[in-house]
């Protein structure tokens, strides 16, 4: 079904005029010098997300993405950057709904495969031995074997050059019950999600818990008040 013109107007690419000033880099000395890696995408680490869509014919497809994250709190939204030539991009523009599926460590090979094969010619779900299931709140498939998914609808998009940034409003978040702790929160030690290192192009686990957010840093706030 072709997209409605009124909806398309809401998702036109934005442009912002930005003035930049080029300065010579400041030279530093000492034992803790930083080494410049130049302009790159080496922002460590990135998530490993699998974007689930239906194509025009209603066939389920999935693509692995790493340039992604939380975009907004109210309404709850995520972003994912996708090249416009990707089949997933076409599917999102056609259907305007998608899922964000989060694989666990045991499905690292599956997630990697979904990022190196094109869905135009291949049924990637069948090839990887994965099961597509229609999400309850959106007309998009999630991966049954993965422990968590977010159901999203297209909210906006922005052309940044090589990629379009897709903004998805979160309609629902679903997780396997066995991945929850006693308080009903997602237990990362149980779920074991993947992260991605852009420069080495390797997958890693999330590691051990370090401490509670908005809590472990309070000691510095106390020192400041004492001063």
TrEMBL record:
Residues 41-196 form the Flavin reductase like domain. Keywords: Flavoprotein. Residues 8-22 have a biased composition (Polar residues). Residues 1-31 are annotated as: Disordered. InterPro entries: Flavin_Rdtase-like_dom, Flavoredoxin, Split_barrel_FMN-bd. GO terms for molecular function: FMN binding. It comes from the Archaea. The keyword Coiled coil does not apply. Its cofactor is FMN. PANTHER family: FLAVOREDOXIN, FLAVOREDOXIN-RELATED-RELATED. Belongs to the flavoredoxin family. This is Flavoredoxin. It comes from Methanolapillus africanus. The lineage of its organism: Archaea, Methanobacteriati, Methanobacteriota, Stenosarchaea group, Methanomicrobia.
